[in-house]
Predict the 3D structure of the following.
Amino acid sequence: MEPHVLSNLITAALAILLAAALLRARRDPLWRGAGRELARRRPIAVSVVALYVLIAGLDSIAWVDGHAPGAKAESGTLQGQARSVIDRLFPADFQERSYSAPLATHELYGEEPLLHPGKHLLGTNMIGQDVLHLTLKGARVALVIGGLTSAIVIPLALLVGVSAGWVGGRLDDAVFFVMSTLASMPTLLLLIALIMALGTGTTQVCLALGITGWVGLARLVRAETFKIRELDYVQAARVLGTSELRIVWRHVVPNLMHLVLITFALLFSGLVLSEVMLSWLGIGIDGSWGRMIDQARSELSREPVIWWNLLASSTALFILILAVNQVADAVRDVLDPRTALEAL
Amino acid sequence: MSEARARARELVLEVRDLSTSFPIDGARRRVVDRVSLEVAAGETLALVGESGCGKSVTALSAMRLVPKPGLVESGTIRIGGKDVRTLPVTEMRRVRGNDVSMIFQEPMTSLNPVQTCGAQVVEGIRLHHRVSNAEARRQAGALFSQVGIPDAEARLDAYPHQLSGGMRQRVMIAMALASRPRLLIADEPTTALDVTIQAQILELLRSLQRDLGMAILLITHDVGIVNELADRVAVMYAGRIAEEGPRRDVLGAPRHPYTQGLLRSLPGRAAPGERLEEIPGVVPPPSQWPSGCRFSNRCPIAFEPCDSIEPERTAVSAVHGVWCHAVARDLGASEP
Amino acid sequence: MIAYVLRRLVYGFATVLGVLLFLFFLFFLYASPEDIARRAIGEKAPPAAIEQWIANHGYDRPLVWNPEDPTDSLLVEHFRRMLTFDFGRSDADDVPIRQRLAEGAGPSLALMVPLFLFELLVSVTLGLFVATFRETYIDRAGVAICVFAMSVSILLYIIGGQYLVGRVLNWFPVSGWDASPSVIARFLALPVIVGVLASFGEQVRFYRTVFVEETARDYVRTARAKGCGDARVMWRHVLPNAMIPILTQVVVAIPFLFTGSILLESFFGIPGLGSMTVDAIQGNDFATLRVMVFIGSLLFILAQIATDVLYTLADPRVRLE
């Protein structure tokens, strides 16, 4: 299957899943109340995150132009290549030869006239790509980093944490040993070691981030499962002979969802920031803001200074992280009664 | 006691129209509403009421220790003649622990768990007196003996968790006595203790008061303790004073229907085999306090003005006041 | 307590063995010596050269089990080298890794110790300050600044710091290193400032939460009732009671004093262990990387045991058993 078809399918599946989860949450008064409280406390941050998700979603839906003879004549390389909705906001041949300042009409070096004078709102980079276009595309990479890693971390942590907490005994000892072993290695070093061994690439980087990131959530889940196991109604269900799996699925997992959501929100910004560091070490993901920042770092010492690449990527990164951090704080306050009490 | 003598008596604590508010459910609510109290030198005033009626907040307001986001809105508070609300911060610090000390309900959590008991008493002494560490420690040892801590010298080096609840409360009292304050505010000092220990602590407070001539503002929900210790009693309900006067008058001939209900619900008052009476309903939370008399929605004798107009003080005698429309009506009818 | 520490040491040793096993899996089984050789000398290297490279680096032994000599396998060799702190030679340039570690530890410590102390001082003081004014606009502004600061990537602090302080203001050298102590201070100033800036948001917020939680406790009210002022309450009562979370936070930072900061060191040209790690990444030097992970977790495990012991000093109620 071609990559863009797969991407479209995954995007559609995620959109359906998201819609289903939202519908489900709407029916539960507790979750509905939490959602409303979240929107009341942090309306701007929530909208910003939604905007990033929208941009990333639009960038994930791509198709190949079947009959575009016009494009063929101008730029042969684009022929047969899938272009996303975001790509289609820009002309197909929106590329210059080298650096140009925002809204410039000529190249920065050499003063050659641009193909699209005055059209590059945020200028172009070293190989002449439009910085605004790249920055928008970075949203998808950032959300893929956070999303794919969470898709590894959350099921793994739930599976390991719940089974260790529920079964206890030898299994718990073994899980605890594995967790303390992984946790004893400094995170960044472990991350580097994993990527060096697994190789670079989106999946590998997310896998490495997942392996370093699941222990924290698994610990929380394990401790919480211990507590839930001792609750009266869970004990009562066991006495009544309900199957263990059914109890876990019906009583334990739903009671862990708030922990999962809080951790996901708190984890997310850390993951995106980690990728920036990895990019800088040369083992990041192509097309990420981290890569753009990495490229931009030598540009500051040029004369005249090239600031737009760095400014665009780091601003996009900063706004996302700030919004996610604020949403995460609000999610924790809304969902975690302990901290809610502390605030009193 | 004649009026003239009452006016002449020296007040160590004087609270006039104190109102303290907290934000509750999005609005500021006065959990203490125009409360007036006075405590004369050497006497014990018991502030009685159910939990949540505002008695602790009243005491904390007097110490200027209302936790944020609580706020003293209006009223005057004088401790030994000093106006607490306008005193500069540093002056107020000198008042606390020096003119007035306070002990709390939970001796377990009220002591700093990572400091020795001795060090905490020594800190109290040295905050107010320029003495050497050794001298302060000697004084702390003496205080420990005075409050009946056996083996006082050794206990100075004990951490709070190494002592029993009763001993911890004695340490709290020793700390409170460090500067020989003229007023001790005791907020439910025995509630967290076993019954036998309760009696010992009460006895200790009584003897200390006798020996040192210290006034006590005793905050309690336990009418039994009031009987043992108090000279005068103020009954609080839902942020307001309901009835106030000498112990014998308030407990012996209560006039406010709330005081009457409170006393009728005590086990000791009922004949054996008789059902204990209880006040119908529960104390409502501050957001649901009625607008007129706070007790009107539970009062057995409430009539027309009660749920719209707040009652003012009605003097049953020179020293006994009641905030009740029914009492005012009855007295007005008998003395036209 | 001694029994407890001994038990912790035994468990810690088991964890170290677990780490070594994990590293063996990652770097010998998952990425085989042949993979490593290819990455070191190039994908298209002739098979003979790869054979040669593998033999030169001692990777030509059987992986797990050598029927002729059970003590001669990569697994045994891996454990032996690590546990005897021999570490072998770099995959990139054959320099003994031990020698590298000895050279790099000094500059790393020179950067990280002042950074760590400043960071602690700044974040604890600011945390106490903000917590003193909890529920006021100072507190809200403080928290907002913290969230703002922690949303900026450390790279931007580095780039911005270098650009502003080094190039525009010309206060300190942008990067570099010199062995003489008087010059080092000039080279360290900027990385220390940048390091403090990059971490204070998260740190201050953490300490603020700890202190605010602590100021709600009854003993704080008692201290105020005694006549303690705000500053005295915070420094003499709240701070000592908050020592357990502070210690937890502080001690886990100790391994990084030795392993250094990867980003700060390489960016500011400090030849410490962090730079060494970056070189190892760029040179596909797996042997050095393995050693860095091992040292990091070894120090972390020791620091954790030390934390437990320190708990008993910070809080008389803690008993180790």
About this structure: Residues 58 and 85 of chain A are 5 Å apart (CA to CA). Residues 131-167 of chain A form the longest helix (37 residues). Chains A and B do not touch (no CB pair under 8 Å).
